[in-house]
Amino acid sequence: MVKLNDLSDNPGASKNRMRVGRGIGSGKGKTGGRGVKGQKARTGVAVKGFEGGQMPLHRRLPKRGFHNPFSHDYNEVNVGRIQQAVESGKLDAGAAVTNEALIAAGVISKPRDGVKILGQGAITAKLALEVAAASKSAIAAIEGAGGSVKLLAASAAE
To answer: In degrees rounded to 5, what are phi and psi of residue 146?
Structure first.
């Protein structure tokens, strides 16, 4: 029968920790295995990214990419998706379709920099859209259904 007070690990499975700085007879006395003097002999030092004077990896790799500070992050919505929202009663065809109206209808989740209407799908509802941007095919589809597209001033200032 196994007793809890008889349990032990296999012999040699665990080592006792090394007690540094406890006299020269221990073999890890005086400097405690840290070499001699200098920044790295002190406590709390880990020079991040330093590779002993060799050019560090983050400096050996080439720089890549470019971030355009003037770019716009639009919500892209197809006309077919707007038609779907009108048919399900979530979007009021009589009122102007704005960023806020599309969020309330659940067509988009975040306002971002505005909405861009794209031309995929069919639209039959007569809508007055007030959006940041729209593709030529989307404008043609909306105006073909008797609606109108008003592009907001923010996109005109580009």
So the answer is: 95, 5
Q: Do 79 and 117 form a contact (C-beta atoms < 8 A)?
A: yes
In a domain, 1, yes or no: no
Are the CB atoms for 82 and 127 separated by under 8 Å? yes
Say if residue 83 is in the same domain as residue 124: yes
Strand partners, 51: 54
Residue in 91, 108, 89, 90 with CA at minimum distance from that of residue 99: 108
Same structural domain, 82 and 55: no
Q: Would you say the pTM of this structure is higher than 0.70?
A: no
* Identity at 55, one-letter amino acid code: M
Same domain, 47 and 100: no
Q: What is the pLDDT along the chain (158 residues), one digit of tens a residue?
A: 899 999 999 999 999 999 999 999 999 999 999 988 888 888 888 888 888 899 999 999 999 999 999 999 999 999 999 999 999 988 888 889 999 999 999 999 998 899 999 999 999 989 999 999 999 999 999 999 999 999 987 544 44
DSSP lists the bridge partners of residue 134 as 117
Q: For the domain that residue 121 is a member of, what is the CATH number?
A: 3.100.10.10
Domain that holds residue 93: 75-156
Number of structural domains (the chain) is 2
